[in-house]
């Protein structure tokens, strides 16, 4: 007779997947404060409380996801789900963490349909608060990623190039050049060997995943040129953005703006209002794609945009985890990465000027509201969602005054 007390391997796997989904959903509903804050929540939950992985392994995973293009915090979540419960665990982790904020932003876009955004005071407040949030991100990243003269120089040069030469290609070239400069000129540090990560993915699956990542990056723009299908254009825009954004959340702003505002899919005001709203909801900033998809093409657009912007993250995590133990001990690789990270700070500083500042700050009152929001974030250390609400109220007051 079978022993009913011992769960089968299949049951254990299913329990692991459901456990990952439950934890990730709770994090998706409560993780306010952007990518850096998310990594803090994750550490508390997965390392301290549940002990799914140790401190060193977690730090290495964060380093990996900071290096890969895409949303770093979401990728850490996907990787932890994968380590815990395989492919389905990764999917469960992503759905739980992403769905709450994606739905909130879709509803926000739906409510705003047809409204004259330019005339709404509270929407103007959301546009203004984006200045403070991006400024805070630039400040924090500059202190961590460009703390010395060589890296600060890379950051300033990247800013100048990004402001004066705004194309989809310029960002990629800045990142490639910064990586080269880092590799050639920045000091090489010998990395101490750290604990190895147990992964249930074969190297063959990893290679296939890399192949698919590059194939889509090359084929989607070609297909877009050959046909006028709108959903293909969306797939290409959002997949490319998800593939080329280094440094996560806020850096997605200039790339997405080039993809949706420049071709006329929406106005700058609609774009920045959604970006402001994305600050007010928990979960990953990349769910901003759900809002953009909803504004431009309704429910199906929201689904296509969300899946397309996160798909590269899945392919990159599957493609990299099996090789990560070897990669992270290479000093040349570390030096190139330092250069890339410094350039990311520069690209973000350029975005702070245009579109964020140029679209939001028109009067001394706007400047004062942005400064107030910045002070509340930096000095008073208020949670971003509180600052967003205060700014929305402030925006309404400015309109009536």
TrEMBL record:
Keywords: Cell membrane, Membrane, Transmembrane, Transmembrane helix. It holds the Pfam family Chromate_transp. The chain crosses the membrane at residues 87-110, 122-142, 154-185, 205-223, 244-266, 272-292, 299-321, 333-353. The keyword Transferase does not apply. It is found in: Cell membrane. InterPro entries: Chr_Tranpt_l_chain, Chromate_transpt. It comes from the Bacteria. It is a multi-pass membrane protein. Belongs to the chromate ion transporter (CHR) (TC 2.A.51) family. NCBIfam families: 2A51. This is Chromate transporter. It comes from Laceyella putida. The lineage of its organism: Bacteria, Bacillati, Bacillota, Bacilli, Bacillales.
